[in-house]
Every structure is written in structure tokens, then in C-alpha cells.
Amino acid sequence: QVQLAESGGGLVQAGGSLRLSCAASGIIFSVETMGWYRQAPGKQREFVATLTSGGNRYDADSVKGRFTVSRDNAKNAVYLQMNSLKPEDTAVYYCHAVVRPGPTTPWNTYWGQGTQVTVSS
User: Fold this and answer.
1) Low-confidence residues of the chain, pLDDT below 50?
2) Residue 1: predicted pLDDT
3) Which residues of 34-73 are buried (b: 16+ CB within 10 A; e: fewer)?
4) Which residues pair with 86 in a beta bridge?
5) C-alpha separations of 67 from 85, 96, 101, 108 in Å
């Protein structure tokens, strides 16, 4: 199986920065998309940013110009640099990855357990 381990969450003041990291481990043949979603209290999980293996980047409008997603394909890792943080960015951030465990197996989506980001005003 595939596991995703996140790190880097915490408490920061508005206007500050944080960097989230996520590494995939386990039986991995190839990784297509890696990225981040978030879920604020009382709200549904929402898309934040993703990056495909080919380098195509997709960002939510709410984070454009402030958050940057990047990858290290050799390490099967994805990162989220978050700048100019706002209180409305407070949420649990989840890493996700679309992975194929073997050359003939189907693609599956995996999720990390989440890391809390709290932005104080």
C-alpha cells in the first residue's frame, strides 16, 4: 500500500508563512498528480493546489499569488509554500496523490491524515 506523511503545519500570525511537506512511501510504480486540499471547521474539503508529473500546476483562486505547490519527483514528495497567510486559511490541510502501484495496476488516489494550519488575526 501507499502512505502519505505530512508535516509542517502549525500556528502563525496573519501575514506569516508556512511550508507544508508530504512524502509518499510504499509500493509505488509511478505518481501522477500530487497536491493539497483543505477542510475548515464546518465546511467541506476544498481543492487548494496540485501539480502533475508533467509540470502542470493548478491553484484555487483563493490562494493564487500566495501559495506555491512544488514537487520532488525523485522523492515522491510534494510541498506547499504558503505566504501572506490569512485567518480564512485556517484548516486541516490534506496531501493527496494519484499513484499506480504497478505497471499494470489501476491508478488510485491516496490521502494523508492531515496537518493543522491555524492563522491568528
Assistant:
1) none
2) 86
3) bbbbbeeeeeeeeebbbbeeeeeeebeeebeeebbbebee
4) none
5) 9, 16, 29, 26
Per DSSP, the residues of 5-51 read EEE--EEEETT--EEEEEEEEES-SEEEEEEEEEE-TTS--EEEEEE
Long-range pairs for 59-67: beta carbons < 8 A, 24 or more residues apart: 62/88, 63/89
Written as nine digits, the cell of 76 is 515522491
- Residue 72, all three cell numbers: 520532488
Locate 19 and state its grid cell.
511550508
- The answer to whether 18 and 85 are in contact (CB under 8 A) is yes
- Cell triple for 26: 510504499
Contacting residues for 56 by C-beta, under 8 A, at least 6 apart: none
